[in-house]
Amino acid sequence: GPKVLQIPSHQIIDMGQMVTLNCDPVSNHLYFYWYKQILGQQMEFLVNFYNGKVMEKSKLFKDQFSVERPDGSYFTLKIQPTALEDSAVYFCASSPSGDEQYFGPGTRLTVL
Amino acid sequence: QQQVRQSPQSLTVWEGGTTVLTCSYEDSTFNYFPWYQQFPGEGPALLISILSVSDKKEDGRFTTFFNKREKKLSLHIIDSQPGDSATYFCAASRNYNQGKLIFGQGTKLSIKP
């Protein structure tokens, strides 16, 4: 099926630092999503993005979080500054027309 | 409050048997229900999905059933194979187009040869 790539697969940073998680969505997809999964828990929606704008965000999408996709390149999730509770696996997903969502392999973020 | 509940948490089935996974949900406005399969170290892969206007959808060995009145859905895997061993997530959305997915906690399935 369609492949979504995520870079890096694992990131370790110190609390308070900035981190950018990168997602390379399927080329003709128009809708983009970030989800967060803490170990042992279910995946939770963070944000979705279409036509250069955030469509909807959850309460987990704190003020320190931002997303963008400049010039059709990577769809990024930036956290600045990071906190210990941001440690999780972050999954990116993309969708051609807002229906079926295709997920990447995730980036494991460890905040020390 | 858990909006989408999944059971069982883990399940072992003999090869060739039928696997049944179930989900229940609270919100009657949910109208789209995908099932995802996830192998260790990989992202969830869309397996099969159903809209609330249907009660059954089949794709090869995988069938999903939807009961709107009881707010329940299930995934049946016939002739289960060791390669089906994975974690399965059900999810729900209020808006088939664009909407966020609300996931269950997953069922870890092990198929024993």
Give structural notes.
The complex is a heterodimer of chains A (112) and B (113). In chain A, a hairpin with a 2-residue loop joins strand 5 and strand 6 (53-57). Chain A is globular, with a radius of gyration of 13 Å. The model of chain A has no long low-confidence stretch (mean pLDDT 93). Chain A contains no helices and 11 strands. In chain A, strands 2, 4, 5, 6, 9, 10 and 11 form a 7-stranded mixed sheet that branches. A 4-stranded antiparallel sheet of chain A has the order 1-3-8-7, with no helix packed on it. Helix content of chain A is 0%, strand content 50%. With 112 residues, chain A is mainly beta. Chain A starts with a strand and ends with a strand. By secondary structure, chain B is an all-beta fold. Chain B has no helices and 11 strands. Chain B has strands at 4-7, 10-14, 19-25, 32-38, 45-51, 56-59, 62-67, 72-77, 86-92, 102-103, 107-112. In chain B, the strands form 2 sheets. In chain B, strands 2, 4, 5, 9, 10 and 11 form a 6-stranded mixed sheet that branches. In chain B, strand 7 and strand 8 (72-77) form a beta hairpin. Classes of the chains: A mainly beta (112), B mainly beta (113). At the A-B interface, strand 4, strand 5 and strand 10 of A face strand 4, strand 5 and strand 10 of B.
Question: What is the fold's blueprint, element by element?
Answer:
The complex is a heterodimer of chains A (about 110) and B (about 110).
Chain A: E1 5-7, E2 10-13, E3 19-24, E4 31-37, E5 44-50, E6 53-57, E7 65-68, E8 75-79, E9 88-95, E10 102-103, E11 107-111
Parallel strand pairs in A: 2-11
Antiparallel strand pairs in A: 1-3, 3-8, 4-5, 4-9, 5-6, 7-8, 9-10, 9-11
Chain B: E1 4-7, E2 10-14, E3 19-25, E4 32-38, E5 45-51, E6 56-59, E7 62-67, E8 72-77, E9 86-92, E10 102-103, E11 107-112
Parallel strand pairs in B: 2-11
Antiparallel strand pairs in B: 1-3, 3-8, 4-5, 4-9, 6-7, 7-8, 9-10, 9-11
